[in-house]
Specification:
Arc Repressor Mutant, subunit A, alpha+beta, Alpha-Beta Plaits, four-stranded antiparallel β-sheet, 2 domains, 154 residues
């Protein structure tokens, strides 16, 4: 990556990770570029795949989904067809924010957003307990988020 981008590109990426709706004029002013030069560089970063997409980060608390649950899942087998079936089905669960294939004790780690314990029980019964190939499942409720960012250190 370092060969592809210079210090100005890194500054652009840091600024956009912090505030993705900056205009080219505002962004250029932050990194000492003209708006047109800034626009060209951002387009190049997008084409290179360094900027994947732009999103709005919604506030789960204000939207009635204040609780995060981390679910560790161990599958009954490691065969490709078991992994593929699990991944296809888990991707259809709207409450699952993230699903990671893991190395270590569990095969997958899910990050699930819920209203409360009753809501998680509903999601567990309706979706999680029906996922294919699941041998074990352990759930942990987050009591408080101490640190959270979507920004990758650049």
């Amino acid at each position: 990556m370092d060969e592809m981008i210079d210090a100005t590109d890194r500054a652009l990426l840091r600024a956009l990770q912090g505030q993705g709706r900056l205009s080219n004029a505002e962004l250029g002013a932050r990194v000492n570029l003209s708006p047109s030069a800034c626009h060209r560089r951002v387009q190049r970063l997008e084409r290179a795949g360094l900027i994947r997409e732009y999103v709005a980060l919604a506030d789960g608390r204000k939207l009635g989904r204040p609780t995060l649950v981390f679910v560790e899942i161990t599958l009954s087998a490691q065969a490709d067809e078991v992994l593929d079936a699990f991944e296809r089905e888990v991707a259809l669960i709207p409450d699952v924010l993230e699903c990671h294939l893991m190395a270590g004790q569990a095969d997958y780690l899910l990050k699930v957003v819920v209203r409360d314990a009753d809501d998680f029980a509903r999601i567990h019964r309706r979706f999680l307990a029906r996922l294919p190939g699941v041998a074990q499942m352990h759930s942990s409720f987050a009591l408080r988020t101490v640190s959270h960012t979507t920004a990758i250190p650049i």
